[in-house]
Structures are given as structure tokens and as C-alpha cells.
Amino acid sequence: MSRADRPTPGRGAQIVAAVVALVAIGLSLFQLYTAGLATVNLFVQRGGHLAFVLVLAFLLFPTSRNPWIRWPIDLAWIGASLASTGYLLINLTAIINRSGFYTPTDILMGTIGTIVVLESARRVIGPTISIIGIVFILYAMTGPRGLIDFVTLPGILQHRGYGVDRIVDQLFLGQEGIFGIPLGVAATFVFIFVLFGAFLEITGAGRFFIDLAYAAAGRQRGGPAKASVIASGFMGSISGSAIANVVTTGSFTIPLMKKLGYKPEEAGGVEAAASTGGQVMPPIMGAGAFLIAEYTRIPYVEIVRLAILPAILYFATVYLFVDIIAAKRGMRGMTKEELPNVRDVFARGWHFLVPLGILIGFLLQNISPDRVGFVSILAILAVSALRYVVRRVMLGRAPTQPPSEIGVDAAAPATLAGRSVLAAPAEAGESWGRALARGAVKTFEALEVGARNALPVSVATAVAGIVVGVVGLTGLGLKFSSLMISFSGGNLLLALLLVLIASLILGLGLPVTASYIVLIVLTGPALTQEFGIPLIIAHLLVFWYSQDSNVTPPVALAAFAGAGVAGANPMRTGVEAWKFAKGLYLVPLFMVFNPEMILGGDWWYVAWTVLTAIAALGAFAAAIEGFLFTRMTWISRLLASVGTVAIFFPAFPIELAGFALITTVLAINFARSKRAAAGMIAT
């Protein structure tokens, strides 16, 4: 079908698309303004952010495709969104002054605002998250003094009950509900770095880092899979979404893995596991680093420093799984001709390292993260424009972007990583004015993409604020902690298992950020106060466990995205991703029983802890795959598993015995591989 024959969207669809673009760009510009140019009131910043987000949600996720049904309903929802948030912002001073003595209009608008947030989350994320929010609101109403006074809750779950006025006060008119810490983090730090990630992708930085990963690891056995681990880890740490990273980076990496010999399910699983790992990798960690810093009051830079070693261990585990599969099947890497040249990659994209260097440098200076994100976005625009000007003036030509440097199928889906703002291919004889206009169009496109990418996080944190507000109002957190202690019988391992099960259940309907917020509010007091887990480790544990919904069937959202790109069975891809991502369970467990790995201590003991962690993770991967150096017997796999469990046991003699057992098993297997190789040479 020629371009002329392709159907064009109707005028109505074009108008909607234009309105969506304007609202999304307006949201991004509002965020840039509040991040770098002006300091505004907490409610003004969060309320303005929420107003844009709600309108965008109802525009992007309509009630029906039938315009006669859609527009009356959706315009009513948009009007309710603007009315409730606008009322709060316009009457902010008066509402604060009459705190606790609100007018009927205050309560009405707060009720409308809460309902609008729940409906927007239902449309953007799905019904489960809204149902959870409603259940918590009903729980707050249940009690002798509440609206639902005819229901008696069992035992420890009982509380006095609250009416609509008190609940709306807590959830919408105060700072402990919808406009609390979760939305505050999403509306400042998270959004600005998601926007930074959009600018990185749209300027071509995504493809630069993918090419760099392939140049570094492509010639090793299983090269494309190893490059996927490296590239996805880096981009995932900035993009803020494992699923988005699977779709973008995976469009390049998954076809190459399949071409090399990985099964489609394995290719999708590797990409999903690596992209999920990007969410625990500093400096951004999705929204995790900022949320943990807000809840623990530990400086952001310290969070990054403490989180980097566990993240490296996770990626080492995924990398080892990839290498074992490649060795077991006799795979080879890509040829030199198929791979980009490191020098060429750096020559084309070294300037992308400048804004990243600025970002990291400023963060280390303890400058506010949202201000750092603002400066970094300006930096990436500046270096892209400067590169264009220098190349055009000094070399007499505009820089070009070839479609691919790594042999990707031309039919592979287009992604943002393949586009460019100011370094896009220039038309012959292109005027400066035309180049400037093209750059402006792409810049606005990045502003729109950033707002779209941040939408799920924003609505999720708004609903999470409802949960947090009810927990604070009813004291549910302490009650849940008491229940957890009762069920575990004071056994730490059983308590951690309960946290893991809770994370899986929450992951059925909540995105990672919301799951972490709900889980830490409910289980945090017990983990820190009753079981004595250090505060930062408790938060890292819960945050890591909250990632499992990306790779654990029956949900496995990142794995399903990988299956879509790979053309694989979704559930089988989920199982493969679950296997590759087992570090999500083991590394936090190791942190709990070996806190020196995070908190530090005598250098020799820290070194021993890291060494045993590497040995345990390596033995675990070898036992699962039944291969390391050569095929392992069932006895070797069993002994390696026993050694792994012993290393996790919180007693040094048993830990030492487990390490000795693992090294012995692996040494024997290494010797067997050498003898087998010598026999093949002799024959």
C-alpha cells in the first residue's frame, strides 16, 4: 500500500490527538517550570500536576469508541477533574485556615476529587488498583462511629470508624492522602527524570547505548543476550518503566538473540529480567531511589551508594544465566563485521555522556534532584544542538543517523531510540530555519512522550496516597504488623516469606511503585521494630520484592511485553523471566542476613560477604541450569543447592561450610570440563 493509499485519521481523531499533545506538553512545561524556574507551594505543585494528569487520563483512555457516548461522559469527568482540583487551588488559603471545620462545598469537592482519581486509575492501570482504594475507604467507614456502623470487624482489625467528612479531610483536603508523599515524589523527582529519559531516547541516546553494549559484549558467546543485559540495565535505570524499556530496547535485542539461537521465550525472558533489574539500578531506580529517600529521610546520594552493589549482583546473576545457556548450546558471538566499531560509536554519540555526567555530578553535590533533572534536560538539548552546528559549519554537512548499527531487521518496530531531535538525517540543502523547526517539533514530541510515560506512575501514586491516608487514619499499619508477627511466630524467615507473598498478591493489580508504597506502609513497622532489620534494608527489601510482578506469572507484565516483541508464548516467557530474575528474591534475603554488605564494616568481612554472595548466586544459577563449565550431575546440582542454602544461614560456621561445598563442587566440574576438552583434542 502506497503512502497515498493509506487511510488517514478522521478530523475528530486529529483534533483529539492535538488536544492530547497540548495537554501533555503543557504538563511537561509546567513540571520544567516548577523544577527549574520557580519554587511553588506544595499543594499548587501537586494539585497542578494532578489536574493535568487527570485530564490526560480521560483523553487517552475514553469511555467508549462511540463519540456520541464518549464525549458527554468523558467531558463530565474532565469537568469534575478540573472543578475539584481547581477549587482546592483557588481556595487553598481559606481551606487551610478552616482546617477541621470544612464547609459542605469543601467536602463535596473533596469527594468528587477522590472519585475522579479512582476512575482515572481504573482506566489507565486497570480495575484492581481502584478496587483496592475503594476497599480501604470502606474499611475507614466501618466501625461504631463510622458510616458503616452495622458491620463489626474481627478482632485486631476493629477501629472506631469515620464519616465522610473526616475521610475526605484525610484523603483530599490534607497532606496525608492523595496529595501526600507518593504523589509529591511522582510530581517532582519521578516526572522530571522520566522526561529526561524521553529526551535521551528521542535524541538517539538509546541507540547509542545499545550500540555501545553490543560493541563491548557482542563478540562473546551469547553476545546479543549479554548486550541486552548491559543496555537494558542502563536504560532501565533511567527510563522509570521496565515495560517501556522492554518494548524499546527489546525491539533491537530480542530479534538478535533469536537469530543467535535463543528460544523466543528465552529472548523475551532475558530482556524482561534485565529491564526489571534496571528498576533497582542507581541512579534513578525507577521511582524507588526518590521514594526511599523521602520515607527514610536518608539523603538521595546515600541511597544510591547503598543500592549499587546489590544491583550489580542482580545483573551478574542474569548475565551468568545467559552465559550458561550459551555455553550449554555451543553458541558463538556475533562477528566483527556484524557489530559496531567502538570508535565509531563514540564518535557519533560521545556527547550523550555529557548530560549524564552533569546529572551524576550535580546529584553528588546534593542539589535537589528535580533541579538536576531540569539542568540535565537543558544540557542534552544544548549538546545535541551544538553538535549539529559544529558538524554543519566545520564539516560542511549535517550529522546523520543510519537506521541501525547492529544488523537489526529493517522490519523491526520503530522505537524512540531510533529517532533524533537535532541530529536526525538532514535533507540536502536544508536551511537553518528548517533545521530549527525540525528540532522544535522533535523537542515538543519529547515533551509529549515524557508526559505520556509518566501518566501511569502519577495515577498509581495518587491512589496509593488513598491507601496511605487510610492506614494513617485507622492505625492499620501497626495492626497489620501485629498480624504478621502472629502468623510468623516471630520467625524472621517466615516473616520475609509473608512479605514476598503479599508483594505477589499486590502485584496482581498494582504497578511496582504503588505496590512498594502500600507494602512498606503495612509491613515496615514490623520489619524494623519487631525483627530489627535496619531501616534502609527493610525499604530495599520491600522495593526489590515489589518488582516481582514484572516477571512472575500469572502477571509478569514486563515478560508479557517481551513475549509480544519476541512472538513467544506469554506464560512460557513469564516462566523464563521468573527464572532469570531470581536475584530479586535472593539478593534482598542476603542483605537481611548480611547487613554488612549494605551498611559496611571491617573490610575483610565486607569482602567475605560479597565473595559468598557471588558464590551463592553462581551456584544457584548453575544448579537451575545444570551446567557450569560442563554438564552437572544431579548429585552436583543437589550439593550446589545445599551449599547455597547454607551460605544464607545466619551462622558463620555453616556459612563457611556452604562456601567450601560450593567451591568444591564447581572445582570438580571445572576439572571434568578440562578432561573432556583434552579427550576431544586427543581424538
Question: Could you please describe the fold and organization of this structure?
Answer:
Strand 1 and strand 2 (630-631) form a beta hairpin. The chain has 683 residues and is mostly helical. Helices cover 73% and strands 1% of the residues. It has a two-stranded antiparallel ribbon. The chain has three domains: 11-181, no CATH class; 183-459, no CATH class; 601-676. It contains 29 helices and two strands.
Any descriptors?
two-stranded antiparallel sheet, mainly alpha, 3 domains, disordered N terminus, 683 residues, 2 strands, 73% helix
Helix content: over 70%
**Low-pLDDT sequence parts:** 1-7, 402-428
> What structural category arises from helix and sheet content?
mainly alpha
Largest sheet: 2 strands, antiparallel
Mean pLDDT: 81
Strand order of the largest sheet: 1-2
Total domain units: 3
* Separation of the first and last Cα atoms: 59 Å
Over all CA atoms, what is the radius of gyration? 26 Å
Number of helices: 29
Question: Quick one: overall form?
Answer: globular
How many DSSP-defined strands? 2
